[in-house]
Structure formats: structure tokens, C-alpha cells
Amino acid sequence: MIKILLTLGLLLTMGCSAHKPIQLADHVDLDRFMGKWYVIANIPTFIEKDAYNAVEIYQRNPDESIATTFQFNKGSFDGELVEYHPVGTVIDTDSNAIWEMQFIWPFKADYRIVHLDSDYSLTIIGRVKRDYVWIMARTPSISESLLNSMLDIIRKQGYDINRVQRVPHKIELSKKPTRRT
Predict the structure, then answer these.
(1) Is the Cβ–Cβ distance between 83 and 179 less than 8 Å?
(2) Which of 5, 63, 158, 168 is deepest in the core (most CB within 10 A)?
(3) Are 73 and 81 a contacting pair, CB within 8 Å?
(4) Do the strands 133-137 and 165-166 form a parallel or antiparallel pair, or are they unpaired?
(5) The pTM is what?
(6) Which residues pair with 101 in a beta bridge?
(7) pLDDT digits over 13-70, tens only?
(8) Contact assessment for residue 48 and residue 42, using Cβ atoms and an 8 Å cutoff
(9) Which residues sit opposite 89 in a β-bridge?
């Protein structure tokens, strides 16, 4: 029995692929990063499944935390407007690329800016676990070639790009949210 358990443990250990450390944006100018970002594609969390018109808006608070508004229409372009308000905290103040996001106290989620275009028009947000990723832009759409370039970046980071889903965008979010957290 012990031999079987040791063999299984060895096989599981050999089957686990260790990722190289996740690459980060060299430096993030937080003031330039603030504002509206459209979620173009992602590996969605459970709350983002079937999201349309997904937008994330960042604003610096006086205490240097990041007020975040994440909103989307649920299920269709005209679906219920859902809004969340996590708070971001910059953990690595040398690069400003590593944050924690807190949706519900006391739980904090890993948030890493793994790519940022020099003109702050495109970004990729990832996590060390490579379980979720967000490709975001300042505009509601980007070209196929640009999207493919972003997918290549996340593939090289160790993500399974087959799990990435496009987020449909059609309209600006203007109605009041029916659900807030």
C-alpha cells in the first residue's frame, strides 16, 4: 500500500508543470493607468460568465488605494447591469505592477499587470496561478491582429489560450445597476 501511495505521489509530482515566474510590466504610472478599460477578452471568473459590455474603471483614493468599478450587462447587451466595487492595493511600489484586489473583506485576490503598452492603450492583467486573465483596452474593440498579439503574450506566460473568451461590446453602460456589491 505504501509503495502504491509513493508511486502515485511521484506521478502527481512529475505531472505538475511548474510555471516560470510570471513576467510583469516594467513600470506602471498609476495616474496614466487610471480611467476606463474595456474587457476585450478573458478567462472569466464565475461572476463574469456571460458578461456583455464589461468595463473596469480605476480611480486613486486619497489613501493611495485604487477605487474600482467593474460593471457589465448579464446575459445580453440589454441584460441586467451588474456592478462590483473592489478596492485595489499596490503591493510592489517599485513597479506598481503587483496589486491585491479585495472584493469581500478579508479576502484579497492576486492582480498583476503583466503587459502594458507604452501609450497605455492596452493592458493584460494576470495572476500567478494562471487561472484568470483579462485583456483590456481603452476602446471597446481591437483588431484581430492586435488580439492575436495579446493572446501570444499570455500563451508565453503559461496560460491556456483555449480558455480565453471574447467579451462582446455593443453599447456604453449608462443605466443604473440593478445589483451592486
Answers:
(1) yes
(2) 158
(3) yes
(4) unpaired
(5) 0.84
(6) 88, 109
(7) 333 446 688 899 999 999 999 999 999 999 999 999 999 999 999 999 999 999 999 9
(8) yes
(9) 100
> Would you say 70 and 51 are in contact if contact means Cβ atoms under 8 Å apart?
no
Q: Domain 21-173 is in which class?
A: mainly beta
Distance between CA 50 and CA 46 in Å, rounded?
9
Rounded distance between C-alpha atoms, residue 177 and residue 84, angstroms:
10
Please give the C-alpha separations between residue 125 and each of 9, 87, 148, in angstroms, as whole numbers. Answer: 33, 15, 16
Single-letter amino acid code for the residue at 32: R
Query: In this structure, are strands 35-43 and 122-126 parallel, antiparallel, or unpaired?
Result: unpaired
Q: In this predicted model, what pLDDT tens digit does every residue of 90-128 receive, in sequence order?
A: 999 999 999 999 987 788 889 999 999 999 999 999 999
Distance CA 150, CA 156 (A): 10
